[in-house]
Structures are given as structure tokens and as C-alpha cells.
Design a protein that fits this description.
about 250 residues; alpha/beta; Rossmann fold; six-stranded mixed beta sheet; 8 helices; binds (2R)-2,3-diphosphoglyceric acid; His_PPase_superfam
Length: about 250
């Protein structure tokens, strides 16, 4: 049993180095290319799927659509859920990561980005970005929609959805691909690899690279690995880890 998880390609806000969270931004030109390459690679390696999962955010949806287009599998069923949305980054959304480090210091920004359960500042209730005011979440009980989330909060919505839907499909023999986000995927990795709160801090997810999980019949992880060029994967992962560092381009 295999599961493929892919972080969307670079978004316009990844390119501009802005905290994104639930902001619904497009893929950048580079991100579109990354999604194409992911689809071509999956096809070349002989992967195929029966069902696809993604979030309500267009950077993940566009990535999945591009992958399916490259694989000539646009007809496959796609299940979208807000429960697979990126972690809500609260009032940090829209701020430049490097500028935020200059203002608040590296330690504080690292805590906001990677601590397990410490919350960044929340959006105010009357903020136009509050998902409770947004059309795409109109069906969701208001109390369930966040104004900010920690990784722990993200895990608490992602994992029940994963167990009840994705795992269920897999147990019925369906081959699944998930197109999601940096922190949604970190939530899944913490759960699947049984990582501690400390171990997950150093896990960063490269954009547009398919991650393969292999399971035995008891749904225990046998191994996991990224597909593609090792140096490129390392370079992209480091780019994510260093995103908030000051003067990273001059190092
Ligand atoms: C990034 C993750 O999410 O940021 O919200 O800024 O995967 O949707 O681009 P994505 C964001 P970091 O936690 O890596 O800073």
C-alpha cells in the first residue's frame, strides 16, 4: 500500500516570502512548472491513483489539477476539504518572513513557525480575512473555523479527517494522492512517523516534490522517501527552513 503526498508548487506568496496560511493565492510560474514536473515524474515512475484529496486553497488544487493533467488522469475523483487547508497563520498572514525576523527576532519567528503548540497572534473577529466571513466556508459551523492555529491545532483537524476518509479509502485498496501544504504535511508526517513534538520542529517540506509512504497490511509505515533528484530536494528543503533568516541570499 502506497500513499503519495505532495506540497503544492511555489505560490506567489512563497515567491514573495510572505506568511500565507489560509490566504488563497495562485501558484507562481515556477510553481506551475514544479507541479508539471511532479506529474511527469509520477507518470514516468509508473504511479497511478483511484482517488485524490486536496484542500479548499487554489495553490493545492491547481497543483493537483496540473499533476492529473500530466498523468492524463483528469477524470479521477477529487475530494476537497477545508480540513486539509494550510495551518491558519493568524495575524502573521501577509507579513514578509524576513522582515518579521528583523522586527521580532529569529527566536520568536522560529517559535511562531515551528513550535508545536505556541500560537502566533490571532486575527481579530472583525478582520475581513476571518474565514467566518468568507464564502467558501459558509457551510462550516462558525466555531470550528480558526482565527489562528498552532501545529497542534492543525493536527487535531487533519488527523481525524485523514483517519476517517483517506485511510478508509486506502484500506479499501484505493490508491491515493494528497496535494496539500507545508504544515498540513508536517501534521501528517508527525502522525505517520510517530515523531515527538521536538522531532517535528526540524522537518521542512519542499515544494512540488512527491513524498511516498509505503505501508504494510496493518497500516504500519514501512518506509518513506521523496521522488526525484536528491540534491534538488535538499536545496528546496533548506530554502524552506531558511525562509525567515535575514540576508539568506547573501550567505
Ligand atoms: C506556508 C508555510 O504554507 O510556511 O503558510 O506561509 O505550504 O501553504 O506555502 P504553504 C505559509 P512555513 O510554516 O514554512 O513558514
Amino acid at each position: 500500500m502506497k500513499l503519495i503526498i505532495v506540497r503544492h508548487g511555489e505560490s506567489e506568496w512563497n515567491r514573495l516570502n510572505l506568511f500565507t496560511g489560509w490566504t488563497d493565492v495562485e501558484l507562481s510560474e515556477h510553481g506551475k512548472q514544479e507541479a508539471k514536473s511532479a506529474g511527469q515524474l509520477l507518470k514516468k515512475e509508473g504511479y497511478d491513483f483511484d482517488v485524490c484529496y486536496t484542500s479548499y486553497l487554489k495553490r493545492a488544487i491547481q497543483t493537483l489539477n496540473t499533476i492529473l493533467e500530466e498523468m492524463d488522469r483528469e477524470w479521477l475523483p477529487v475530494k476537497k476539504s477545508w480540513l486539509l487547508n494550510e495551518r491558519h497563520y493568524g495575524a502573521l498572514q501577509g507579513l514578509n518572513k524576513e522582515e518579521t525576523t528583523k522586527r521580532f527576532g529569529q527566536e520568536q519567528v522560529q517559535i511562531w513557525r515551528r513550535s508545536y503548540d505556541i500560537l502566533p497572534p490571532a486575527l481579530s473577529e472583525d478582520d475581513g480575512r476571518n474565514p467566518r466571513h468568507q464564502e467558501q466556508y459558509r457551510e462550516i459551523t462558525k466555531e470550528r473555523l480558526p482565527l489562528v492555529e498552532s501545529l497542534k491545532d492543525t493536527i487535531e483537524r487533519v488527523i481525524p479527517y485523514f483517519e476517517q476518509n483517506i485511510m478508509n479509502d486506502m484500506k479499501q485498496g484505493k490508491r491515493v494522492i494528497i496535494a496539500a501544504h507545508g504544515n498540513t504535511i508536517r501534521a501528517l508526517i508527525k502522525y505517520l512517523d510517530r515523531l515527538s513534538e521536538k522531532e517535528i520542529i526540524s522537518v521542512n517540506i519542499p515544494t512540488g516534490i512527491p513524498l511516498v509512504y509505503e505501508f504494510d497490511e496493518d497500516f504500519q509505515v514501512i518506509r518513506n522517501y521523496y521522488l526525484g533528484d536528491k540534491d534538488l530536494i535538499e536545496e528546496k528543503t533548506k530554502k524552506v527552513a531558511d525562509q525567515a533568516n535575514i540576508n539568506k541570499n547573501q550567505k
